[in-house]
Amino acid sequence: MVKTKWLALLLVRFLAFAATLSAAIVMATSHQNASVFAVSFEAKYSQTPAFKYFVIANAIVSVYGFLVLFLPSKSLLWRLVVAFDLVFTLLLSSSISAALAIAYVGKKGNSYAGWLPICGQVPKYCDQVKGALVAGFIGVIIYMVLLLHSIHTVLDPLLLKKP
Amino acid sequence: MALDINGEKSEVGSAVVKPKDWTLFMLRLSSLLATAAATIVMALNNQTKTLVVATVGSTPITATLTAKFQHNPAFVFFVIANGMASLHNLLMIALDFFRHKFNDKGLFLVMIPILDMLNVALASAGDGAAAFMAELGKNGNSHARWNKICDKFGTYCDHGGGALIASFIGLGLLLVVSVLSIIKLLANQKPTNYHVTLP
């Protein structure tokens, strides 16, 4: 019974690690060249600071997720894991929100500011960014659930465990 | 005069008691002021400018352009997120004053840190989106042919920047409050619970 719960937790943490890693990799490899009226331009993730922030945040959280997978079950470091879970969930939510905002402008444009949508010219780039955002969103949700779970098990605020 | 759990005296029968923890109360109050300021400044962000587009004969044709916060979905989300964070702070401060009417155990005690964390996540998302949108408005993006708008609408950009700074200060304070309320959870447990095991 104890072993099953421990394995389930490990599986959820592995899923979170996989989600953030794939979000970082898919966003980092998004790239497309297009030529409009004999002017060729290139769409890459590094041209937008929000997408760079997204890649860096997801990379940091993937490294953290990988290291936490190897933490032994009865170590005292689980309290530190609660603190780190909180910080990294905030980082992930801020990065996904920023990337979503910029991607929305890229897809729909902003007529008031005179910003035209670019997804018509570089559809493959747009699709890859969309995939990365979906993976990042899954990562955020799993991390929020993991944060609540860590607080419940490590800190035991409802005093459910007998001492 | 009755003694409650922490040994502090509270008056039985009075409507309002003094808050037990002054640090947390002052932090929540400052965070409330910061997030409320951010919400209000961004919500009233509005600038109208009349530009001369062309000249026909001797009469100039003018076009009126407005920059409002509603034009940008990221700023709308920013206003909503900071509004909810300030409402949460207000609720928590009010809860501090009426604490003796609720019992301090079980689910009620754990809802406060959980709500704190949810609001920190919401406020951080709002800040992130608005910060990058403001950076786009200030520097433009030459690769996507998106022009900057801050050279034409300087006051709009300044007000937006001020709201962002206030919101980041409020977010930092709210993060400290969240950490402190989680630590308070630990302090309320029995002291023999040092050995941490997972189920």
UniProtKB/TrEMBL annotation, chain A:
Pfam families: CASP_dom (PF04535). The keyword Glycoprotein does not apply. GO terms for cellular component: plasma membrane. The chain crosses the membrane at residues 50-71, 83-106, 132-155. Residues 1-23 form the signal peptide. It is found in: Cell membrane. It is a multi-pass membrane protein. The keyword Nucleus does not apply. InterPro entries: CASP/CASPL, CASP_dom, CASPL. Residues 6-141 form the Casparian strip membrane protein domain. Belongs to the Casparian strip membrane proteins (CASP) family. This is CASP-like protein. The lineage of its organism: Eukaryota, Viridiplantae, Streptophyta, Embryophyta, Tracheophyta.
UniProtKB/TrEMBL annotation, chain B:
Pfam families: CASP_dom (PF04535). Residues 21-171 form the Casparian strip membrane protein domain. It is found in: Cell membrane. Its main location: membrane. The chain crosses the membrane at residues 25-44, 75-95, 107-126, 163-183. It is a multi-pass membrane protein. Homodimer and heterodimers. This is CASP-like protein. It comes from Ficus carica.
